[in-house]
Specification:
Blueprint lengths: L15 E4 L5 E6 L5 H9 L3 H8 L8 H8 L6 E8 L2 E11 L23 E8 L8 H15 L4 E6 L4 H8 L5 E6 L2 E7 L4 H23 L3 E5 L8 H12 L4 E5 L9 E2 L2 E4 L11 E4 L6 H11 L3 E4 L9 H16 L3 E3 L5 E4 L6 E4 L7 E8 L2 H12 L11 E6 L8 H10 L5 E6 L5 H12 L4 E5 L20 H10 L3 E3 L2 H13 L7 E6 L2 H13 L3 E2 L3 E2 L6 H13 L5 E6 L6 H18 L5 E5 L3 H9 L34 E2 L2 H21 L13 H12 L5 E2 L2 H9 L8 E3 L3 H11 L3 E5 L13 E5 L2 H15 L2 H4 L1 E5 L5 E10 L3 E8 L2 H6 L2 E5 L4 H10 L17 H17 L3 E11 L4 E3 L2 E5 L17
Parallel strand pairs: 5-6, 9-10, 9-13, 10-12, 13-14, 14-15, 18-19, 18-20, 20-21, 21-22, 23-24, 23-25, 23-26, 26-27, 27-28
Antiparallel strand pairs: 1-2, 2-3, 3-4, 4-5, 6-8, 7-8, 11-12, 16-17, 16-19, 29-39, 30-33, 31-32, 31-33, 34-35, 34-37, 35-36, 37-38, 37-39
Helix pairs in contact: 6-11, 8-9, 10-14, 11-12, 14-19, 15-19, 16-17, 17-18, 22-23, 26-27
Length: 946
């Protein structure tokens, strides 16, 4: 690497892996003096036309001077980056700092100790992409990375000169979303653009990220050919089992069995072409499933990479889950795969499944292909993946299997492909209506929240998180540290539209309802059935879940299928209900014929009003559960006759046409109602997300003044808690005014402070163990005169110790109201979070605090105030006066703006905030400043580092 004194150290942090438009990967890294041969080889593979576009003249080869110039960089004024695959260059980009006159400039001090020249913040940028890799989005990715490097080196603007015929490169610049200027002179297009990220440039970056990552997963789930590496000759074993599963599922593409110990004369294995190496396969291989021992995986990956395999599913174990040595082996696996442009599911993975008729891929350890349906499954645990597949597949004994699976991914150690990537794929997948995820860790909570919000706006996303209370990520999972408790993370996920459940049973319950029933328009529930007791249990469950049930309608145990049909039809037609729960108990003597008749009666009634969800609670009615599934099969069926009447008892029901709403059945009222409550909450979120509100502007906010204060404070230290006066001064710049609290180290000082503030006053102990603990007796309120103040001072010092320990202060009394707490914190993983709750030990004990991601909109501030369980105390509970919640919402919005505008404000606490019937008073505040955590969501697209 370069070591000359005029050059900076090699910037290793600029190295990154990126996903390209077609789903493949490339490595981006700085170009060094060691790259001369690679550069020459790369240039020789570029067409004459591309060379002409780069140099504006025929340029068949690089001179020795050119090679020196393009490989020697100081990493400040001259920087070159290369995109590589397999260690070879496929594209390059460079910038050269220039002055106002367009000539080379420098940011380094002048030689000889003279005064430094003005530092230029402009650079000229140029690209060259190998023709074979044009159209893959390489230049767009390189532009993001070179722009980030330039900003780091103080460059704020790029200039580029492009020939008019070079439309591809012009499009790279114009589509990037930066603020730019364009001119035409002397036959050349001159472009200038600012490098500061804009809303449009971030939107472009996110859109490209989405397309690339979705395509990378699509290549893994929709392969045209699959090779199983490690297939045994004899039945049994993981490799042979996987090959059998692929064959048994009817995979529509080409299959290959690979094992280096196969005899040279072995041509087939159970009708599948057999090979000793992937390199021997004649034709492309899209997906390789690797089952060999971990020690032999590098050899298999190299074979796959050299053959041009697009992606890997690594079933092999012995990686990070096995300890430090395995963790290093896992890192090497990811680096090796990415060097060839391949993405990896695993290692230690259970496999992947795609039930689409045109693919029928079962590259997993599941011996049977699950039934095709509309549910996407992602599990970080193979055992949980098996359980999820089994529960959805099962048609009786519990929740009925009324629909099936579209795709299934078990990521194992999740070394590369993660839940974020699969979300990107599901968002566009027309075969997936509902996404179910079992997560044991979230590698990038900020990105997951962003993707979840977008996905949830289009289709339901249900998540259960394991290892919630373990305090550490599972073995093999590389995750970012977060200081937020699990309850806070769950609240933030719900804010993003995620349906958060606690068990895999609830995950399946909610998924089956959402997969084929419409969303309820509200919380009103009609209940009908042939059991009064079961109806009452359902009624109570609805109340417990916050729904609004109507009195149950008892059809009596003598009810026939026709009675159920008529009652359900009336309930669905009734505008006073938003959903219907049907309860049913067995009728003696009717058996399967009666079950089928009842199922058809319910299905035909539900079909008349398809916009309202219907659920069934059954008791020991396996036959009904199966009949409900059969009566609404998703397979192509003959059309039902134009007759909504129930089929007569004893006659087979006519299956519903493909696409009809399926009726999920539950073995317990609590499970059905809990799933319905989640659907109601999600539907409400969808309606509110359509109008998320806005972040208001306040004319009295002094953003520049606050920035100057923050810069001055941080100049004296990297992380510090501001003094009381400094805190008040900074908050005042954002319209947050804190009541003055004057120190009272002695009784006379307390009296002087009270005279300055005006009676009545409060006397408070601010020692850490007494601060904000009125329940301990460290506060005296409504002191009307000097006598009362001196008496209170004596009482406090007698109870708790000398003034030096108590740290007493005097504060003017604020209007009476409800004591609340407002907090904001920047978490390194989740981002900036705003929290609200009522003050007091009870709130802390119950964890009754609500949270929102910053920046908060006006609608989110209103819902934040109402999200805590103790919110009725703010709105006139038991005859008390309602307090000024609009003032409270404005305070929340101002704090949100402060933290969003100045990420150096890493923590804010306002406690207590007394909200009165008119206005509020902030009686205490603390602010902590520090350099903000790095935000990779504002930088160039990268894959997690390994």
């Amino acid at each position: 690497m370069q070591t000359s004194p005029d050059r900076h150290e090699y910037p290793a942090h600029w190295e990154a892996d990126v996903v390209l438009r077609d789903g493949g990967t490339a490595r981006v890294r700085p170009i060094t003096v060691d790259d001369a041969e690679r550069l020459i080889s790369f240039y020789e593979q570029v067409s004459d036309e591309s060379k002409y576009y780069r140099f504006f003249a025929p340029y068949p080869r690089l001179s020795a001077k050119d090679v020196h110039r393009f490989t020697h960089h100081d990493f400040v004024d001259r920087v070159g980056l290369a995109a590589t695959i397999g260690g070879e260059f496929i594209a390059t980009v460079r910038y050269d700092r220039i002055g106002a006159d367009g000539t080379p400039a420098s940011a380094r001090p002048a030689p000889g100790g003279g005064p430094p020249p003005p530092v230029s913040d402009e650079a000229e940028v140029a690209f060259l992409v190998q023709d074979a890799h044009q159209g893959r989005g390489v230049a767009s990715a390189l532009l993001e990375h070179i722009a980030a490097v330039a900003r780091e080196r103080g460059i704020r603007r790029f200039a580029a000169e492009v020939l008019p015929a070079n439309t591809k490169m012009i499009k790279v610049f114009t589509d990037a979303g930066y603020t730019q200027k364009r001119s035409f002179e002397d036959g050349v297009v001159h472009l200038e653009f600012d490098l500061e990220p804009t809303d449009r440039s971030l939107a472009v970056q996110y859109a490209r990220e989405h397309r690339a990552e979705a395509r990378s997963v699509q290549r893994l789930l929709q392969p045209g050919s699959v090779a199983v590496v490690g297939t045994g000759r004899a039945p049994g074993g993981v490799g042979r089992g996987l090959l059998d599963n692929l064959r048994g599922a009817g995979f529509t593409g080409r299959l290959h069995a690979v094992n280096h110990v196969f005899p040279e004369d072995l041509e087939e294995l159970d009708g599948v072409p057999a090979h000793r190496s992937v390199r021997e396969i004649d034709g492309p291989v899209d997906l390789a499933v690797i089952t060999v021992p971990a020690a032999r995986v590098p050899e298999a990956v190299a074979d796959c990479g050299e053959h041009g395999v697009q992606g890997l599913v690594v079933i092999s174990a012995g990686y990070a889950e096995s300890g430090p040595e395995g963790r290093e082996r896992q890192r090497a696996l990811v680096r090796q795969a990415r060097s060839y442009g391949m993405r990896v599911i695993g290692p230690n993975a259970f496999g992947v499944i795609n039930t689409a008729p045109g693919i029928r891929l079962n590259a997993s350890l599941a011996p049977e292909m699950p039934r095709a349906g509309r549910i996407g499954l992602f599990a970080q645990s193979g055992a949980i993946g098996i359980a999820l597949l089994s529960r959805i597949q099962r048609r009786g004994g519990g929740v009925t299997g009324v629909t099936g699976v579209s795709t299934f991914v078990s990521s194992g150690n999740r070394a590369d492909v993660s839940g974020n990537d699969v979300l990107q794929y599901w968002y566009d997948d027309p075969d997936t209506d509902v996404a179910l995820m079992y997560l044991e860790s979230i590698r990038n909570p900020r990105k997951f929240t962003r993707l979840a919000r977008r996905t949830a706006a289009a289709k339901p996303l249900v998540v259960v998180q394991g290892a919630r209370h373990g305090g550490a990520a599972p073995q093999g999972h590389a995750v970012r540290a977060t200081r937020l408790p699990h309850a806070t993370v769950s609240a933030l996920l719900r804010q993003a539209g995620v349906i958060r459940v606690d068990t895999i049973t609830e995950l399946v319950d909610a998924g089956l309802l959402l997969a084929r029933q419409p969303l309820p328009a509200g919380p009103r529930v009609a209940i009908l059935g042939n059991s009064e007791s079961l109806g009452l249990l359902t009624y109570d469950a609805c109340l417990s879940e916050g729904l609004r049930p109507q009195p149950p309608q008892d059809l009596t145990t003598a009810a026939s299928p026709a009675d159920f049909h008529a009652a359900l039809s009336r309930a669905l037609a009734d505008d006073t209900s938003d959903a219907v729960v049907v309860t049913a108990i067995p009728t003696l003597g009717e058996g399967s014929a009666g079950d089928a008749a009842l199922a058809e009666a319910l299905r035909s009634a539900a079909a008349t009003v398809p916009g309202k969800p219907v659920l069934v609670v059954h008791v020991e009615l396996g036959g009904l559960a199966e009949a409900l599934s059969a009566a609404a099969s998703t397979a192509p069926q003959a059309a039902a006759p134009d007759d909504s009447r129930p089929a007569p008892a004893g006659h087979p029901a006519v299956p519903a046409p493909d696409g009809a709403h399926l009726i999920p059945a539950y073995p317990a009222a609590e499970r059905a109602v809990r799933a319905l409550a989640e659907a109601v909450s999600y539907a409400r979120w969808r309606r509110e997300a359509a109008d998320p509100g806005k972040v208001p502007e306040y004319e009295d906010i002094d953003e520049k003044g606050a920035a100057a204060l923050i810069e001055g404070h941080l100049a004296r230290g990297q992380g510090l808690t501001l003094s009381t006066d400094q805190t008040c001064d900074l908050l005042a710049r954002y319209g947050v005014h804190v009541h003055r609290a004057l120190p009272a180290p002695a009784p006379d000082a307390a009296v002087a402070a009270a005279r300055a503030l005006g009676y009545p006053v409060a006397l408070k102990a601010t020692a850490p163990h007494l601060r904000h603990r009125a329940d301990l007796g460290g506060v005296r309120l409504d002191l009307a005169d000097e006598e009362q103040l001196r008496r209170a001072y004596t009482e406090l010092t007698e109870l708790f110790g000398p003034p030096g320990e108590l740290r007493p202060v005097v504060q003017r009394m604020a209007p009476r109201g409800v004591d609340t707490v407002v907090r904001a914190v920047i978490d390194p993983a989740a981002g900036a979070v705003l929290s609200f709750g009522l003050a007091g030990a009870a709130t802390q004990l119950l964890g009754d605090t609500a949270h929102r991601l910053i920046p908060v909109t006006d609608r989110e501030a209103a819902t934040l105030v109402r999200a805590v369980r103790t919110a009725p105390l703010l709105f006139g509970w038991r005859g008390s006066a309602p307090v000024d919640t609009p003032a409270l919402e404005e305070l929340l919005l101002r704090v949100s703006r402060l933290v969003d505008d100045h990420p150096e404000v890493v923590a804010v606490t306002l406690e207590p905030v007394v909200v009165a019937p008119h206005g509020l008073s902030v009686l205490g505040a603390t602010v902590r400043l520090a350099p903000p955590p790095a935000r990779d969501d504002l930088g160039p697209r990268t894959l997690p580092a390994y």
